[in-house]
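User: structure tokens for Penicillin-binding transpeptidase domain-containing protein, please.
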Amino acid sequence: MIVTVRIRRRTAALAALLAAALAATGCSSGPDQPETIAEQFAVALEAGDVQAAAALTTDPAVAATVISDLFDGLGNDDPDVTVAGTGDAGTFDLDVTWNFGEGRDWSYRTTGSAVEDAAVDDAAAEDAWRIRWDPALLSPDLSAGASVRYTNTVGSPPTIFDRDGQPLMSQQIVTLVELDPTADPAAVAPVLATVAPTITAESLAAELAAADGRPVTAITLREADLAPLEGQLAALRGVTLAPQTRLLTSERDLASPVWSGLADLWQQGQDASAGWAVQRVAAEGSVQRIAGTDGPEAPDLNTTIDLGLQQRAESALASLDRPATIVGIDASTGAVRVVAQNTAADGQGAIALTGLFPPGSTFKAITTSAALQAGLADPDTVLPCPGVASIGDRTIPNDENFDLGAVPLHTAFAFSCNTTMGRLALELPASALTDAALQFGLGIDYLTPGLVTVTGSVPAAETPAARVEAAIGQGQVTASPFGMALVAASVVNGHTPEPMIVEGRPATADREVAAAPDTVTAALRAMMRETVTDGTATAVRDIADLIGKTGTAEYGENGGAHGWFIGAQDNLAFAVFVAGAEGSAPAVEAAGRWLRG
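Assistant: Done. Predicted tokens:
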């Protein structure tokens, strides 16, 4: 006879369930008692009721401990337990299935026996029989001192490579140096200061005091940094070394929040590689897998990052004490080659990709494009460039009030005439700059695997004053360094490429926008070349085939200014941003250090 009883854990209803089990067997005494108590045991296990199941055995105390440990080890107290049949001498079989999620079932059969309890005079009484206790009744793999446990498994951690197959990020071992209240900051600080000079006895003491008796993590060290210090640290009172695995950049200097999108993509691959296992842990500690399956191997990630260019960019920014970034993009493919930030920028987050700032005069590439498309001028149209101009109800100056008089548009662009651009914008429709910006990727949202970005925002300029401000990249106009690198890429390529940081996985845009006419982008390339050879970026005119546009962008109420330089050399488009630089010179100089190598 096969009887199946399937319930969820509801201890309060156990008595009713036991009664149902008895009714299902069609008996309650006599020779059928072994089958009855087997059913009672099965029902109690299904219900997850440790005490009820243990009470039915010949050794309730030990059984309760083992059953409880089984549930704890498997993280599951809801097995499917079926009495598969009974045999001679009070024997019976149990079919047991544990479900750990979709496609994760562990099934097996065990054999047990029921014996009469000699302490009960009436053999017909319901409590006259007991299950002979044996851990193997719960699982064939259980024996005295052994246990079983469920665990998730993952495959080998993937590696993130640069475009040439060099490791960019990989899972590595790091060690947390933890201090408890008994640690002596004066003894620990000199050891740690050899790798982290900012750590002092005073800083450690302050951290311990603020922790109110809890341990603190003084620093996290890579293996190479730990090796020369490990012996000294291990010998100090109150110091614990706690190793962990983490996804890290191949070189410490490359560590930056800009890689968070790649880290998320890496973790998705790890999660997708998850398998499962039920393990038998022997009394002496050896582990044997007894059930489960491995997941698929997580694939390595091959990025478009050029590690050599990236390291040169990091070096070019390292000397700047203000937040600074460089973003480099392959103009024809959208492949991101460089996303570099200095230490000051890293402290503010991934500002190269998501920081929004007024783009200043770099936005004149957009303004000029809009004016050309509207037919307000062509590159050779002679326009006034006074030092100061009253335009509508706004008065705007050129940088240090320089005055070029009447010059062709391409010259006004190369020397960054605010007054010329303001007058042109006044004649444009309210949405003209918004529409022109979209043609160069600015204001478009991209969903890019491995990359978290914001390009910028160019709202419609409904008033003359708003158009004048927007024309020179001020007012409500904002852009990220990534967004301005896309603008430069669009100028070079003739249309905005789809950004990509993982090979073969380009971005999807939230909208499709027709590119600016080829004549317009060709004119912009010529004007940006003139900016380098004869205009505001002559500090880098020694770099062959370089085109660019400088920008100084005022911010805040105190008259501070950010510095920008966008451009391209051959197919490598870029944007350099230096916060609070007070002018474009630091950005131009950083670009020069980077491109000259």
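User: Anything notable?

Assistant: The radius of gyration is 36 Å.
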